[in-house]
């Protein structure tokens, strides 16, 4: 890593990513989808308006794969059944995750001709989830020890104390935004602990996560320079931490683990930036949106909230069911490395396959009555929210721990959380969750 000045510069915290996107679309309504393909599930309005379910259900009824020949993100295959997604994930050599072919999101990389036409340089963010073996293996192995069962045991006491303290601070008898006061605060705090990040600056992690993880925003080319500038500021901050930690041999935070790993300590700046994006978005948006999704789902299904209140022994399974029901990351993308027949469809080398976890988790062939929250569901653990195979989420255990502790501490305080105001969903096709969830707390 390059040496930088020891003084910490000022880092921007505005504009918020979502506000920048909304402002742009208001000025350029012609850029919004006008006549979408009926199965073009790349469009964000169906998630913002929560009407994606019937579209995927219709596709699943007709078959596991469906080709979209034209869309703002180019042609692609929708892979919508639980079985088909598991099959594709189990063949990482045939279906690549590498950023060199397009990576893990539905958005294609610009080709050289497009870059020349726009007068831009290539801006890639390689990260280990968007790599194939063997490089993926070495980099994943570097951070994996932070998420082992023993590591989770070491962290649980601190997570429980922070969660309890936060719940005790929540207002009673008034409406507040659960997303901001609980979901963001708990997950951002957890990230700060994992990185040993300066506590007073922890909300920068939320700001960066929103700019990095919003694929809808990445499609707006006029915001490219602003987005890249913000991500470079993120890298600058972490480079500053890198230089500090390089002097310490005993650090156990994620940055120190990268420094002392042969697989990661020679990363170029963009690869460093890419892996930061992976760890920040993976550790922030996913758990954050499930923490909000739990509250919304239990309010929607009061019989399940009552079951949670009466049978706290169901909490570990309730965590799995809420992760299934919410599905905080809607999709992952793969690229075919050769011609192959897949479930009766002819896939060509270079074809883009979008694995809709959101759809797989509502597959009636696997989950009975899949559109209902059922915290006693026997096979809730079969959800694909964390992916499958070599790219299964490395932080899955930590997410499960945070969610379990949240439900246990809520139950201990006999907290019942009601949706009592505005509900605003994320306008995106990748991160699936809530931007605002106004609630009120009562007792049970």
How is the main sheet built? 5 strands, mixed
Helix fraction by DSSP (H/I, runs of at least 4): 40-55%
CATH topology: Cytochrome p450
Note the overall shape: globular
Number of helices: 17
The CATH architecture is Orthogonal Bundle
Portion in beta strands: 5-15%
Task: Provide the CATH superfamily.
Answer: Cytochrome P450
Question: What is the ordering of alpha helices and beta strands?
Answer: HHHEEHEHHHEHHHHHHHHEEEEHHEE
Number of strands: 10
State the end-to-end CA separation: 54 Å
Structural domain count: 1
Enumerate the strands of the largest sheet in spatial order, edge to edge or round the barrel.
1-2-8-5-3
Contiguous uncertain segments of 5+ residues: 1-6
- CATH classification class: Mainly Alpha
**What's the gyration radius in Å?**
21 Å
Mean pLDDT: 88
What is the structural class?
A: alpha+beta
Can you characterise this structure?
The protein is α+β, with helices and mostly antiparallel strands. The protein has one domain: Orthogonal Bundle (Cytochrome p450), CATH 1.10.630.10. The protein has 17 helices and ten strands. The strands form three sheets. Strands 1-2-8-5-3 form a five-stranded mixed sheet. A three-stranded antiparallel sheet has the order 4-10-9. Strand 9 and strand 10 form a beta hairpin. Helix 8 runs antiparallel to helix 13. The radius of gyration is 21 Å and the shape is globular. The N terminus is likely disordered.
């Amino acid at each position: 890593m390059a040496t930088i000045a020891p003084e910490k510069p000022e880092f921007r915290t505005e504009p918020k990513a979502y506000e920048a996107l909304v402002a742009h679309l208001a000025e350029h309504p012609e850029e919004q989808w006008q006549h979408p393909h009926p199965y073009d599930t790349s469009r964000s309005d169906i998630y913002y308006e929560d009407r994606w379910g019937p579209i995927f259900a219709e596709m699943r009824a007709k078959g596991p794969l469906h080709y979209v020949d034209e869309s703002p993100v180019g042609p692609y295959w929708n892979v919508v059944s639980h079985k088909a997604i598991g099959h594709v994930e189990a063949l990482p050599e045939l279906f690549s995750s590498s950023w060199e072919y397009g990576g893990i999101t539905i958005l294609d990389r610009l080709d050289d001709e497009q870059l020349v036409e726009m007068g831009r340089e290539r801006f890639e963010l390689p990260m280990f989830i968007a790599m194939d073996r063997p490089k993926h293996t070495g980099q994943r192995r570097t951070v994996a020890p932070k998420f082992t069962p023993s590591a989770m045991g070491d962290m649980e006491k601190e997570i429980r104390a922070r969660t309890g303290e936060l719940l005790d601070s929540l207002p009673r008898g008034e409406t507040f935004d659960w997303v901001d006061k609980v979901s963001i605060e708990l997950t951002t705090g957890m990230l700060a602990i994992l990185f040993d990040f300066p506590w007073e600056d922890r909300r920068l992690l939320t700001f960066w996560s929103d700019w990095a993880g919003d694929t809808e925003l990445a499609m707006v080319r006029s915001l490219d320079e602003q987005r890249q500038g913000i991500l470079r500021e993120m890298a600058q901050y972490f480079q500053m931490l890198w230089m500090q930690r390089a002097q310490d041999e005993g650090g156990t935070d994620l940055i120190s683990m990268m420094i002392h790993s042969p697989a990661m300590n020679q990363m170029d700046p963009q690869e460093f930036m890419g892996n930061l994006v992976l760890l920040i978005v993976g550790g922030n948006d996913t758990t954050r949106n499930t923490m909000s999704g739990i509250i919304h789902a239990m309010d929607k299904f009061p019989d399940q909230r009552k079951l949670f209140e009466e049978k706290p022994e169901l909490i570990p399974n309730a965590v799995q069911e809420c992760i299934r029901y919410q599905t905080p990351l809607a999709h992952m993308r793969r690229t075919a490395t050769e011609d192959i027949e897949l479930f009766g469809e002819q896939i060509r080398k270079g074809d883009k396959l979008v694995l809709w976890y959101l759809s797989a988790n509502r597959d009636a062939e696997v989950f009975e009555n899949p559109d209902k929250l059922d915290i006693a569901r026997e096979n809730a653990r079969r959800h694909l929210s964390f992916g499958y195979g070599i790219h299964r989420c490395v932080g899955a255990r930590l997410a499960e721990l945070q969610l379990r502790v949240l439900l246990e501490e809520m139950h201990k305080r006999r907290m019942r959380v009601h949706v009592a105001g505005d509900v605003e969903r994320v306008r995106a096709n990748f991160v699936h969750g809530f931007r605002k969830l106004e609630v009120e707390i009562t007792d049970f």
